[in-house]
Amino acid sequence: xLSVVLFDLDDTLFAHAHAVRTGVxxxxxRVLPAADGPGELERWxxxxxxxxxxxxxxxxxxxxxxxxxxxxxxxxxxxxLADDRLADRWFDDYLVHYxxxxxxxxxxxxxxxxxxxxxxxxxxxxxxxxEFQTAKVEAVGLSVEHVIASGSLGxxxxxxxxxxxxxxxxxxxxxxAAYVGDRLRTDALGAAAAGLRGVWIDRSGEASAAELxxxxxxxxxxxxxxxxxxxxxxx
Length: 235
Ligand SMILES: [Mg+2]
Hints:
Elements: E1 4-7, H1 16-31, H2 37-56, H3 62-74, H4 84-100, H5 108-117, E2 121-126, H6 130-139, E3 146-149, H7 160-170, E4 177-181, H8 184-193, E5 197-201, H9 209-217, E6 221-223, H10 229-234
Parallel strand pairs: 1-2, 1-4, 2-3, 4-5, 5-6
The structure holds magnesium ion.
Magnesium ion (MG) is lined by residues 8, 10-12, 181-183.
């Protein structure tokens, strides 16, 4: 067994998609009552992906990506959030609902406990703002040795530097660590390219044959649940 297992946070340990869905629907019902909430979820998701990537690449700062997401979302409804204060207030109102829905995936704590029993040390590498991500970690009762966030470093997954930085923080060589995440390229292939054991958690089971081939070629293990992790790492 490896001595260190590192995890992605959102949608790997933390049920981010669930919290977003719940938070957006509650927020829309209040501020855009005429909107088709469920029908708007995909557009919210696309705006999040688009502007969050702009944050991760340094094009926007953390608050600016939130404002752009809010502005893009309300644009079809003729709502004007050009004033930063209005955009911030709109996004903060959404965050109230998002926070109320914070929870872990059911398999997260049992997995961390199983690793602890095997004397495996654990940590998190997340693409995000350290304060915001740490608030989530604490709110849901996660306990790991180190939380490493791209926002504090200036580089983000899949840049190998973030994986190597994490290994240095733990004082282990990359070959002594595994990294588990829900995004094949950003997480599992990125980690494998940096010399860690990459593990892709495909919770929905929607992996294509091409993706599975790509994972296999890089030595990445594919699991459907964190319940499978210790078994996958024991091979
Ligand atoms: Mg993730």
